Amino acid sequence: YQKLKDICTWPVILTVAEKNVLMEKVPRKICLNYFPKDHKNRNFSEVYYTRKMSNGELIDRQWLVYSKEKNAIFCFPCKLFKSGSGQLETHGFNDWQHTSEKLKRHEVSKTHFKAMDTWTEARFKAINHSNVIHLSEKLYIKEKQKWKNILERLIAIIQYLAEHNMALRGSSDLLNTPNNGNFLGLVELMARYDSVLMEHVSYVKAARHRVTYLSKDTQNELISLMGNRIRNTLIDRIKAAKYFSVILDCTPDISHEEQLSCIIRYIYIHNGEIQICESFTGFLVVKDTSGLGLATTLKQHLNDCGLDFTNCRGQGYDNGANMKGFKSSVQAQLLRENRKAFFTPCGCHNLNLVLADIANVSPKVVTFFGIIQRLYTFLSASNYRYDIAKKHLKLTPKTLSDTRWECRVESVKAVRFQIKEFVQVFEEILTESKDAKTYSEATSLLKEIQFFPFILTIIWYELLVKVNRVSKILQQKDMQIDVTISFLDNLLKELSTFRENGYHKCMRTAKVIAEENNIIPHFLQRRVARSKRQYDYENVDESIKNEEEQFRIQYFLLVIDRAIESFKERFKLYEDLKNNFGFLYNFKKIKNLSKDDLLKNCNNFHILLQDGQISDIDGTDLFEELLSFIQVLPENNQSCLLDILKYLIELKLNLVYPNIYISIRILLTLPVTIATAERSFSKLKLIKNYLRSNTSQERLVGLAMMSIEREISHETDFSNVINDFASAKARKVRF
Question: Name one GO molecular function term (predicted).
Fold first, then answer.
């Protein structure tokens, strides 16, 4: 409406909207120190803005308007409503010598009176209409702020319950009714001390059918908005990192739906701080658990998140055939589309499978773990027996499990350090027991744990501790592939060393335990089985006559050899990674490489990261950068790739050595274990349990997002969610 500022520039025909704008405002009176003079040396004066009555009173001429552009005066209402054809009503009056006479004649004319009446009435209506709109807007803003205040509290309640994996709903969805759930219960509790919720609860009580926004539908909407907000924050971080890896694992939920947990691993760099992150992006229901079905589901999920699969540099799964197979598994399907998505098997699963392999290597090993399981089963089957066990034992026996990675070490540990206490437990049970079955089982187990070969068999604990220590370290979210390979190499060396001298150490320990518990530390000599000699045999087959030597060969060495063999077999893929990327895992060794070897490794690395004509790095440039960088890299920053990356960022050397910077980011992105996905299943079972088996998938994912990514949830600003939701809901209120 710029053209309406000066009256002489008004359009010939005004639109309704333009008239409404003009009618709402009183014309502005222009006052100048010097008004322009005409050829008679006369000019307009501010005196004409007022009319002097006969009694001397001055009346404001609101209708009179001066145009600076035309140096003329107009009658505002007459021009607005085209009520006449004079100069004041059309092109403007500027005969300053006769201004007074002209104004006096015009302001008493019938056309002017009619225009003034029309203008006054129109202004009154416009002002009233404007006041109504202003009042409506004021009420709307007030109502919006009210709902915003309410929603801030409702979101805080939902966030608290979600982070603590607590149910929101109960058997009733009404306030002040029994069993109405944690959400409404907390609303009622806060309403006692908070004026905003107190007023809202009173409002709800006044009329049951009013809009309350405490229903399950509102809960679902808020949960979905909050979960999406957290996911979007994570996706923005992943996109900023560019390179990422996917970690997947499946499990059935309580409603028999196969849930696929999707974890994204990436490098988060913010304000100079570097963090290796493994972020949860959602649970996905899968109908087809084949490699193709899972791969299709994953790619669709990445596409929905706006992530480019060509930037994926790693895959991490368990050891299921549909996950890691070489022909039709998930990793094979994805490698066909992106050859740079390197597969790394879960280190913890592999270590668990190594233990599973050696747990079945011989009947003696199977018998040992059978006894351990019998101890747990016998004591836990009766509350009375379990109370006796708790009275004597600090470490209660644990059951064995094929899925829990620590189950074996926890089970054996309870026996390893409490032989004497277990003896006391069974002696008390035998003293108090009157049941024949209980007496028989207790007698049998007591004999087993007082048998010296069983005590020596607890050498398992030494082996389990070594493996479990590495497994626990690998489960850290920020574990790096170079550090992982270093730990695995050291574990293999420990196993080899344990094979050479571990038996004698275990024998000494077993004898000490036996003597402390009055157990004779020797092996029972059994009858030597003699084989029939054939007439054409030259020599007699010699059997092992020494029971101890037989135990060492057929148990100890068999177990350790199987452990080493299984370890090498299951971690072969890690050896391949070491061969491909190993020259970058230890920058100290780069100095010892010849230039030809280093250039060869850099070019091979270039080829690995190449797809078609595009590669993430340039091998030749990487070679030149490494030659220069190893000369300036301090000794204390060469321990691992993460330290080197921090050094690059801190000194802004990533701009000087971009190929090294990219290479390290890719290597740190490679997954080590699927422990984060396993942890997400713990949350799944807490959120979607027996009592909440009908939870919708959208609600499940939203609650899981807040629970699993609770740190991001605390950092996330939900004000946009509140504003959008409050604006939409405020319009539903009738004023």
Answer: protein dimerization activity
Q: Report the distance separating Cα 702 and Cα 221, nearest Å.
A: 10
Residue 420 has pLDDT above 80, yes or no: yes
Q: Looking at the predicted structure, is the pLDDT value of residue 728 above 80?
A: no
- pLDDT tens column, 635-683: 776 678 898 999 999 999 999 999 999 999 999 999 999 999 999 999 9
According to DSSP, residue 63 is labeled T
Q: Annotate 601-638 with three-state secondary structure.
A: HHHHHHHHCEECCEECCCHHHHHHHHHHHHHHCCHHHC
Q: Report the distance separating Cα 96 and Cα 243, nearest Å.
A: 80
Asked if residues 348 and 475 have their Cβ atoms less than 8 Å apart, the reply is yes
Task: Determine how β-strand 610-611 pairs with β-strand 614-615.
Answer: antiparallel
Q: What was the pLDDT predicted at 543?
A: 46
Closest CA to 268 of 301, 315, 235, 299: 235
Prediction pTM value: 0.77
pLDDT in tens, 82-120: 877 888 888 889 888 888 889 899 988 888 999 888 888
Residue with tokens 């390893």, as numbered in its chain: 416
Q: Give the closest residue to 591 by CA, choosing from 630, 634, 637, 635.
A: 630
Half-sphere exposure of 490 (CA within 13 A, CB side): 11
164-170 own/partner pairs: CB under 8 Å, 24+ apart: 164/707, 165/683, 165/686, 165/687, 165/703, 165/707, 167/691, 167/692, 168/219, 169/216, 169/219
- How far apart CA 683 and CA 464 sit, in angstroms, is 28
Band (pLDDT 50/70/90 cuts) for residue 711 is very high
Our CA dihedral for 352, 353, 356, 357, rounded to 10 degrees, sits at -140
pLDDT, one tens digit per residue, over 165-216 is 999 999 998 888 999 999 999 999 999 999 999 999 998 888 766 778 888 9
Supply φ then ψ for residue 165, to 5 degrees. 55, 35
Select from 352, 200, 321 the least CA-distant residue to 675.
352
Tokens of 697: 């998938």
Query: What is 122-191 written as a DSSP string?
Result: HHHHHHHHHHHHHHHHHHHHHHHHHHHHHHHHHHHHHHHHHHTT-----S--STTSTT-HHHHHHHHHHH
Nearest to 286 by CA among 338, 248, 315: 248
* Region for 271 from its dihedrals, namely left if φ exceeds 0, alpha if ψ lies in -120 to 50, beta otherwise: left
What is the spatial distance between Cα 712 and Cα 229, in angstroms, rounded to a whole number? Answer: 10
Q: Is the pLDDT of residue 535 over 60?
A: no
- The terminus-to-terminus CA distance of the chain in angstroms comes to 32
Nearest by Cα to 265 from 245, 294, 251, 283 = 245
Domain boundaries, the chain: 2-108, 126-214, 221-346+673-732, 352-524+544-572, 586-669
pLDDT of 458 reads: 78
pLDDT, tens only, 495-529: 999 888 888 888 888 888 888 888 887 776 555 55
Cα 380 to Cα 649: distance, rounded to the nearest angstrom: 55
Tokens of 328: 């039709």
Instruction: State yes or no: pLDDT of 540 exceeds 60.
Output: no
> Would you call 119 helix, strand, or coil by DSSP?
helix
